Amino acid sequence: MTKLTIGRLANSASVGVETVRYYERRGLIRQPPKHGGFREYSRDDIARIHFIKRAQELGFSLTEIEQLLDLSECKGNSRAQVKQLTKEKICEIRRKIEHLTKLEATLTTLHERCNGRGSIAGCPIIESIVTRSEQSDI
């Protein structure tokens, strides 16, 4: 089995050495014992980092990824648990999309109100932000 230094592992997994160390501290990847003063990693560690990165691309947090890894390591676990985690992530993404859609509508309205000419005094975009921030101080 090919053994890798932390630098080669990081390079092979397309992450930085500090990312590998951070994942170790978080318990997402194991910290191997030292041999000859160096920690030796395996190709399995590359696959695990790729799993973590792909799960992050899908929107999972490191805490959620830890749950997914724990579930995947015990073959007796049910797919229902993974499905539930995924359902919760979908609901979270939908809430974010709804919020972003509202933000887009608000910004579009503000953008349309400003003709882009003249001095900053009386700019409807700035006035809206100031008014909104003053209201939140109350």
CATH architecture: Orthogonal Bundle
Low-confidence parts lasting 5 or more residues at pLDDT below 50? none
**Gap between N and C termini, in Å?**
65 Å
User: How would you sum up the major sheet?
Assistant: 2 strands, antiparallel
Radius of gyration: 24 Å
Strand order of the largest sheet: 1-2
Form type? elongated
Compute the number of structural domains.
Answer: 1
Mean pLDDT figure = 92
Instruction: Write the element-wise H/E pattern from the N-terminal end onward.
Output: HHEEHHHH
CATH class: Mainly Alpha
**Class from helix and strand fractions:** mainly alpha
Q: Counting H and I runs of at least 4 residues, what is the number of helices?
A: 6
Count of DSSP strands:
2
What CATH calls the topology is Multidrug-efflux Transporter Regulator, Chain: A, Domain 2
- The amount of helix comes to 55-70%
**Strand percentage, roughly?**
under 5%
Description:
The protein is mostly helical. It has a single domain (6-136), classed as Multidrug-efflux Transporter Regulator, Chain: A, Domain 2. It has six helices and two strands. The protein has helices spanning 6-13, 17-26, 43-57, 62-73, 79-113, 124-136; strands spanning 34-35, 38-39. Strands 1-2 form a two-stranded antiparallel sheet. The mean pLDDT is 92.
Protein topology:
Elements: H1 6-13, H2 17-26, E1 34-35, E2 38-39, H3 43-57, H4 62-73, H5 79-113, H6 124-136
Antiparallel strand pairs: 1-2
Q: What descriptive keywords fit this protein?
A:
138 residues, mainly alpha, Multidrug-efflux Transporter Regulator, Chain: A, Domain 2, two-stranded antiparallel sheet
